[in-house]
Amino acid sequence: MSHTARFWTVFVREVRAALRTRAYLGLLAVLAATVFGVARAGGGPTGGYVPTVIDLLVAVEVLVPTVAFAVGYRAIADPAARGELDVLETYPLPSWAYVGGVYAGRSAVLLALVGLPLATLGVHVATTAGPETTVFASHRGVDSPLLYVRFLALTLWYALVSLSLAFVLSALAGSRGRALVLALAGLLVVTVGGDVAVFAGLDGGLVTSETLGGALAMTPAGAYRGLVFDQVLYVAVPGRSAFVSGAVAVGSLLFWWVGSLVATELVTDAR
């Protein structure tokens, strides 16, 4: 059996385990209710795609990492606690194939949990927003379903990055108790800690007004937020320039995504 086949075996196992986990259905229902509730409370669906994104952005910044950590915080810690990783050392299964298979399986679950409610909301906007909302006067911009698709794609990428961060913390934990503690700490850092650190640096003089955008782009949440503004909101409003460099934001998300997965593989291999 090739390494690719072993990777696929681990992936299928993770997906089958997820299909038997009813908690994911509850998580999907809660996420869908929250997304629709926030959007309808702000009136976004009747205003169009861009107003809906504006209503959702802050909530999604918090919800997506929360769901990602819920899906991934025990992904490596549980097998380590059960001794499964020790048993796997007797099989011709490289750590990268194991970590990659588990990550791919959990990613499929996460993409479904995050993507289905947001995609359904997009369909809801398409069927409820009036034709006059193609141009929304309050923002002097042009609305488009393509902008919502961009928002959805960036959000799914943000979810995958958050999941990779949950994985490396799970690998470092090695037990269920420590995994929960590290997950809560990591979630706090991802959602608010990065911004707090940047603004603390601004107050202390380490970050200036000229470097503020770049500093914010170095955090996962800041990079995601900057890309949404750059590729979705400011595209719809002519004459506005992004406060975060798109290239820096993309590089930052790639760094956290790939770096976390490599770190997870190294930690798992060292166990």
Number of helices: 12
Terminal residue distance: 24 Å
Largest sheet: 2 strands, antiparallel
With strands numbered from the N-terminus, the spatial order across the biggest sheet is 1-2
Quantity of strands, as a count: 2
Q: Give the amount of beta strand, in percent.
A: under 5%
* Large-scale geometry: globular
Mean pLDDT, all residues: 85
What is the CA-based Rg, rounded?
Answer: 20 Å
Which regions are unreliable across 5 or more consecutive residues at pLDDT < 50?
135-140
> Class by helix and strand content?
mainly alpha
Q: What are the secondary-structure elements, in order, as H or E?
A: HHHHHHHEEHHHHH
Helix content: over 70%
Please, could you describe this protein's structure?
With 271 residues, the chain is mostly helical. Helix content is 80%, strand content 1%. It has 12 helices and 2 strands. The protein has helices spanning 3-19, 23-42, 44-47, 49-72, 77-82, 84-88, 95-128, 145-173, 176-204, 212-217, 220-236, 246-270; strands spanning 135-136, 141-142. A two-stranded antiparallel sheet has the order 1-2. A hairpin with a 4-residue loop joins β1 (135-136) and β2 (141-142). α4 packs antiparallel against α7 and α7 packs antiparallel against α8 (145-173). The chain starts with a helix and ends with a helix. The model is unreliable at 135-140 (pLDDT under 50).
